[in-house]
Recover the amino acids of this structure.
C-alpha cells in the first residue's frame, strides 16, 4: 500500500528554483516499489512547463529538478528515520493523479540515489 503525504492546496508554498518559475510541492509517494527498490517520489506542480506555453524549456526544468533534489529532498531526508533506495522527482504542469495516464499533461521525471549527503543523478 502506498503512503502518500500531500500538501494541502491552501498550505502549498512556492518552492524556490533557479529559473524563478512557480513550483509547488504536491505530494510525497512512498512505499511503491521502483526498479531500484524502495522509491520515494517527490511530486511538484510547475504550470510554466506546459508545452503550449513554452515559458520554461526542458533544459531549464531539468536544472530546476536537480536543484529540488538538493534544496528540498536532501533536507527532507535528513530528518527521515527511513531511507529510500531511489528518489524520483517529477514536475507536471498540472495536478495529475499518481499512476494515472495524462497524455495532455507535460511531465518531467528524474531519478537520483542519495549518497553521502548528495543527489546522484541516475538517468532512466
Amino acid at each position: 500500500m502506498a503512503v502518500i503525504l500531500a500538501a494541502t492546496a491552501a498550505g502549498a508554498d512556492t518552492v524556490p528554483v533557479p529559473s524563478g518559475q512557480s513550483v509547488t510541492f504536491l505530494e510525497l509517494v512512498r512505499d511503491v516499489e521502483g526498479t531500484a527498490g524502495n522509491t520515494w517520489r517527490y511530486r511538484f506542480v510547475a504550470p510554466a512547463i506546459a508545452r503550449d506555453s513554452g515559458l520554461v524549456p526542458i533544459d531549464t526544468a531539468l536544472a530546476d529538478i536537480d536543484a529540488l533534489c538538493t534544496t528540498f529532498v536532501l533536507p527532507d531526508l535528513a530528518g527521515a528515520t527511513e531511507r529510500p533506495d531511489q528518489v524520483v522527482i517529477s514536475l507536471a504542469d498540472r495536478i495529475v493523479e499518481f499512476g494515472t495516464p495524462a497524455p495532455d499533461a507535460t511531465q518531467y521525471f528524474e531519478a537520483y540515489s542519495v549518497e553521502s549527503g548528495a543527489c546522484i543523478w541516475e538517468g532512466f
